[in-house]
Amino acid sequence: MKAIGKTLFAAALAAVAAATAGAQTQPAAGRPAAPAAQQPARPAAGPVNVPDGKIAIIDSDAFSDQKAGIQRLVAAFQTVEREFKPRRDELQTMRTKYDALVKQANDTKAVADQKSLAALADQAETLKNDIERRQQDGQRALEKRVQELTSPIFEDVGKALQAFAATRGITLVFDVSKTGNAMMVVNNAVDITDAFIADYNQRNPASTASAAPAGTRP
What we know:
Blueprint: H1 2-19, E1 55-58, H2 71-108, H3 114-166, E2 172-175, H4 176-179, H5 193-203
Parallel strand pairs: 1-2
Helix pairs in contact: 1-3, 2-3
């Protein structure tokens, strides 16, 4: 299940990165960045019939759904979101100051002396470089923190999926979220996504998520 674990980690990192997209540096003109696209909430899982057959499909993208996903994984994302909020807020304050410097330079370029304009330009450039450096540092810290919190969960999910499939006589599970148009599903009854999530959450409530080691928080 190593391949499944890596795939899920990539999806999780993308999800958290999207949630922290507000930390992106704005262009000099001060245009706000476009908001990240919001994925529609997956409806809560109801009773699901698990197929009696050798082949099944699963949608691992659903694991991170806030309402109907794997609770331990969602809790890990929420922890990362809370921990990195101060960094995002700090970057937002710095971007606001940067935008103000750019606006001041543009508004006064017709009347201000060249020395004053050059000083404003230097301040703006220094601040811009600081924002970019902090953003890069934050991204590295984000990736490290996501891996710390989610890797054990992914490994456990992979093992649980193996056991879930084995006890139901399923020998092959395709992840449709990664195959795209390469696979055509003609019978939705082979979809075990909701059944697996429900089973996993029942056996592994969010309160069982491992706490991070002391001193690792950003």
